[in-house]
């Protein structure tokens, strides 16, 4: 590793408040050329806000910003940031779904113009995709709206690294691997290493601590709007990072509970459409059933089958869903937090033909405390919450409803580790009370919370593992074809 | 440059070109009615009259078809499209009650250019190539005063009940009344109220002004307001003057009661919805090759003491006295206009 | 190979064209005399102003707004065209240019104050209507000669309405769907936040789109007067709903910047033809609006069915 030389970007004493909430409290952070800086912290610690300031999207209340050694304070906006070579892959996907992959590339490259601009844009994005994700299989003429969420993320990442007139000097990756499966995430981290060794600078924000520890040169830990620790990556380990973030690393206290399979009839019985043999997914009352495998291999389809009771799925009991793509399937963006939580249980607040607003509020308030949604007021708009907290509200909606079965479509994407632990505990709690969970997840850690795991490959169930026999190795093994 | 023009249209054009020849057979001709609105009783009666008269004409073989089309939304562009569709359907003549005097001129011109005869009535169009059967409201007002001059040789005071303020029809009728007063020199208009062509409004307005008025010899009206005026006079305990009626069923009924009780005498005048049938015959005459002036005037439907019972019997409750015109009536109108 | 060409998406985008073909064949069958130069001319000429108004509406829908004032606006333009533009061309031109600027201003207002476009444009529709009555209190006026000459043009072989429709669809398609800047404009409908993050000004984009809508509204009013020869303050009120229906029928959607200029023009023509078709059927006029709605629903239902097929290949 070359010694970091030259300043790529510098933030000095940056302050930013949203109303009464001070999101950034005088943050100073320097980014050098040729380094990857890991940025970790709780949801709401200010990581995304800081990066939005660096990308020119938010104007700070105070503080200095310099990019590539030039002080740009006071004339820094999204256009200036782009000009200076700052690129950002935002946590919420920011592609235009009604445009093709190539057209989306054109959006951030005004330099692509004139006759034959389509060919230029197509070549640019395709070349970059090839560099970052070899074998990606994405046609640049596809509409982005037709791509899976993982592929959209791949396009957005490749787009951020693509270069026309302005350089890609600083690339910010905010939870870039949250929708990617292990293989593709690996490709990305490899590319990031190549990119920084060529002199680029990169900020990597991730809740997957292993990822940050292995890919970053330095790691900054944020808490409550400030940087609380900053050192070489090798100076940290998992435990010290978690400690710095302020949450206690919980050692897994899951004792091998006796299988609940012995007694009673299953409450869910479903079979992927493509499944030709007799294997089917079975869930009993009080069980947490994991759906594993690489992303996009039929897990979501099966979740939807169970939720809708379609495709021959046998489901006894009401079903609630926790969506993974919260932007498109989850939140009602114009509603308050309380309304977003209580919509799953509205019947309960009916008094005559009208809704009991007070009861609705108390209910939401109750869940806010139980699940720790960080907001002073549940009647605030849902969009005032950070991404992780929005996801918590969706959990509250599902858990607060009377449904006996809860299906979850990779719900923990982009949620910080403290929140995750809280939610895991709650899931185990609810399961003990007799609720059944179907849980699709791309993270190995989460599978450890499951009583039973089905590994998907190519749209079918490839392995059926009870908790006792489930190991990371077995799951990975089943995720890939024997000949691959 | 080859253009295909439908044969029927060429035939129609030839027929027009040959209009000097006295008689062309119209038994193969098709006439359409393009109507912009059917939402009140007058328009409903108009459509019924059209249907009645034209179906007889079709039966007798005078024309081969006479179909009525009404637009749903009373919109100019919709009726323009309807007229263009009627051209395409190959009608030889289109009779129009127009949504706008100007807005349909483009479509009317298209029709004329395609050799289709266009006759407009009630809501007339200004395009010069079309025929117009207009209502002379001014004459209607004047006729009322002329009748009164005959009835009341000594003259006297008049109360005028006007229609809806600011509407062209109201101004025209009122102007005709004032013309008549000036011409005969016998009358003095001592009061004027707006009755909005409605019984209840007229009654209230007349009751309000009556105490301040001297003896009234006659009331001139615009139609729809005569019955209300009569009620107001009765309520005030004043002698009932000669009230000119407007062909509404309630007005005619009241008149009949008074006539039977004390031989009350007056007249009633308005435009008959059956004017659509007049337009039909005019169109037939044009297709027949007759020379017809472009501007014609609708005769009024006037009811007098002797034909009151007859008209009352054919008027339905809540409706307006109607008359369907015949071919002879149309010829009379045409010759009166100098054709 | 055929399977590749007949993808659900291809079928879906071909749906408006299929609807057009079906209705055209039905009309030709019902009324063979429409199958001529003369017939097509009469059948389609009133579709030109509707197509232009539909394109105007499409620009607005593209940025996730809705224009409820386009009918009243076209009426106002018609009134100005039949009076000022005819009597003193300079004043008329200035007035029409001014209207386009006002439209851009409405776009700016909606963006800056974050107002619902439905409310703002509903309000504007009364303003336009009031101005139209002021300009032309009683129906009348006269179309400028050159507009009348253009709209009644009889080119060799192909009727003018067809040439005009192809031209309108082609120009707008190129500008909005094929050009680099058009891509940015459409992107603003798909994900405005992303556009802002990439350094584009949403204010400018909204103003551009509203100004374009105003421009095409002006063209629509002028074309309409060219056909009717004179104007009326209420002349085009039904264009508001027709234009929205036309965009949707043509494959556009209310949100997300999914629009198609070719589809919009085809949609406007289909709606116009639907009126003719129903009148050729001699359907009771009271049923005609319902039947027009039924056509819309059938096409949209087909679209949903195809989209479902697409989701489950």
Detailed description of the structure:
The complex is a heterotrimer of chains A (484), B (339) and C (313). Chain A has 484 residues and is α/β, with parallel strands linked by helices. Chain A is built from 16 helices and 21 strands. In chain A, helix 3 (101-107) crosses helix 4, helix 4 (117-132) packs across helix 5 and helix 12 (357-371) packs across helix 13. The longest helix of chain A has 16 residues, at 117-132. The model of chain A is unreliable at 248-256 (pLDDT under 50). With 339 residues, chain B is an alpha/beta fold. Chain B has 12 helices and 12 strands. In chain B, helix 8 links the parallel strand 8 and strand 9. Chain C has 313 residues and is an all-alpha fold. Chain C has one domain (36-311): ABC transporter involved in vitamin B12 uptake, BtuC, CATH 1.10.3470. Helix content of chain C is 76%, strand content 0%. Chain C has 16 helices and no strands. Chain C has helices at 2-5, 8-30, 37-44, 47-62, 70-82, 84-87, 89-112, 117-135, 145-151, 160-178, 180-190, 192-197, 202-228, 239-249, 261-280, 285-311. The B-C interface holds B 1, 3-6, 8-9, 67, 69-73, 75-78, 80-82, 84-85, 87-90, 100-107, 109-110, 114, 126-127 and C 31, 33-34, 36-39, 42-43, 45-46, 49, 139-141, 156-157, 224, 226-232, 234-239, 272, 275-276, 279-280, 282, 285-286, 288-289.
Major sheet of chain B, described briefly?
6 strands, parallel
* Low-pLDDT sequence parts of chain C: none
The low-confidence parts of chain B are 1-23
SSE string of chain C = HHHHHHHHHHHHHHHH
Global geometry of chain B? elongated
Distance between the termini of chain C: 16 Å
In short:
The complex is a heterotrimer of chains A (484), B (339) and C (313). With 484 residues, chain A is α/β, with parallel strands linked by helices. In chain A, 33% of the residues lie in helices and 23% in strands.
